[in-house]
Model the fold of this input.
Amino acid sequence: MANYPNEAFARQQVAMITSVVEYLGKGTLRHVEYVGELTMQLTAAVGSLWRTLPFAGSRSRWRSTVRQMLAVGVDAFPMVGVMAVCAGFILAMQGASELRRFGAINLVIDLVSIGFTRELGPLLAAIAVSGRSGSAFSAEIGSMVVTEEIDALRTMAINPVEFLLAPKYLAMLITLPCLSILSDACGIVAGGLFMLFSTHMALGVYLRDVAQSIMLRDVLLGLLRSLVFATIIVQVGGLEGFRVRGGPDAVGRSATAAVVKSTFLVILADLGFTAIFYLIEGK
Amino acid sequence: MREPPAEPMISVRDLVVSYGGRRVLDGINLDIARGETMVLLGGSGSGKSTLLRHIIGLEQPGAGRIVVNGIDLASSAHKDLQKLRRSIGVAFQNAALFNSMSVADNVALPLREHTRLAESTISLMTRMKLAVVGLAEFGSYSPQELSGGMKKRAAVARALSLDPEILVFDEPSAGLDPIVGAELDDLILALKRAFSMTVVVVTHEMASAFRIADRMAMLYQGSLIAVGTKEELKSSQHPRIRQFLDRVSDPIVDAHKIDAFFEQYLKGGLT
Done:
């Protein structure tokens, strides 16, 4: 050591670099593990879906699915509706403030109807439901982990994913597309009200123009997005719940993590969809 | 002429379990015969709950073999494991009842999931199981409305739902007053006599253990230090067993260590 006064410093530098590499490596492994667990859970959930259906499966599972549809879908109507109306007004006003400079304020109709059916309708519904239901799923399942109820299910030879998650998944696959349509409708109506107040355009005329600019393809693609968003919200919420280890504070953290991760993945998936359709359209 | 000993109901061989580098169970060898009541004793952190979790199939062993009713837990097909699980009834420490369902629905759950019985039959069987544990009138209650002792009894009713061959109790008297604890002991003894089940109980309540056990196994820091009848354990001179039975505490405060700490502190030797 006496011969090499810089050796200690060099060792310190090497330690810093290796710790960064370690950190990156551990982080990557954690994410890969997460994706793996998510995939396995999704496979199990999809495999259990048929047992959740009304005639093919068990009646108690279907009853559970119906209860979930009420909680996830029907109870979310007011929130999704209000959010969509607000977003409709925002989009119309922002669009109008620029378009009127070119005397093209009527293009607001296209902006709102295409913007909502292609993009905003499904996305807003998914974000609302992710906050409401994603956190509820992870908190419910997480507290069942803490109280050994999940262990009890396993010892009774009942698959927790099939019992708990599949009904929620089927319910979400049915209700989120419905909420997307609701969101589309509310956004478009908001646009119509804006046009009524700003240009005194009759609602009937507005709706006729909307009908001309909407494409069925956009509505259907929006519904397809909803199915993917539904999968993300339920699977992430479920996985965060099943991964809880510890006490009530861990349950709280899992609820937060469920909302944050599912919202992030929903937006990421939306980007993916949009990019794919953009490239396909461009050809 | 003595008959050859029958195949044990539960057989644990060289079980080793480690969590994060720490050996929780170190080479456990244990046989539980058909129809006997085995009590697993041990202090906190001795590994008895871990051993129980492995026997009921909630965890996979790191090394070693566990055979329950002829089924090897580590190497059997999923279908066989599920069939085995249906023949084991487990009453968890905190009852683990599902709060979203009534007590009757909790007890009926295994029947609804695993049988094709008519609803009326399930209803009747559920009432019978609840009657066995003294909760016949409480079927429509929700678990939050029950006292601690009643919850535990409801958990036992649920464990009995599919008429299991093995009944497992995790700390049945934990958190109960002595009277209710004694009631639960009586229930276990009655079930034993009526149904000739193999019963495994994890507990650290000595009075309860000596009442219900046929044989006892004592764990200490992950190893089995004794397996035998009640009389054998009572007369054992092993220091740890004696300490456990006689309720003698370990010294919690090491006066020398504290002296040394403050000496060093006062000399300014701590950074």
Q: What stands out?
A: The two ends of chain B are 74 Å apart (CA to CA).
